[in-house]
Amino acid sequence: MTTRKANSRIAPAPAELVRPLIGMPADAPIGPDGPLAHIAGRPVLNVQAVIGKHPDLLVALNPVLNALGCGVLPLRDRELAVLRVGYGLHSAYEWAHHAAVGARAGLTEQEIARVPAGPDAPGWSEFDAALLRAVDELRGPRARVSDRTWAELTVRYDERQMVELLATVGAYTLLAYILNSCDVAIEDWFTDPADLPEG
Q: Which CATH number fits the domain that encloses residue 65?
């Protein structure tokens, strides 16, 4: 059972103030069978509401996150990369939400549970291992995808997808910084969120 934080360091802005900033009406439909089904009927997330305390920043970030969410990476691949970011940065919020999205995007329970073990764990395909390794390399001292990993990824990805992968890792790293430092709480309505594995 996930432990929910009692208080965020920055209280979320009221939903009625945040919705216009993200262009999302109160009754925005989210498909019950889509990857975001766990937030159906609850369009303003705590992360949006906390960033909403800086309205200009939320207005600037939201189109970037929407572009990544509807981008050219396969959804399963994106969620695998985001889970590795969330685990590596100890972001319980990011892990909980993206474990839910990842499961709907085609990641199995075993694959989600294997993310903390990293790219060298047995069971990954060569491509999945390269994807996880790219996240680790970007978060390493050189902040650069190695030539070997680049070559493995470009067997399947075109240039646009490679740029999007780099942007995805960067954007969710940025969000993890905000989530962790502001102690953004997992929403009370989120039933049975996945626990961030120890590590």
A: 1.20.1290.10
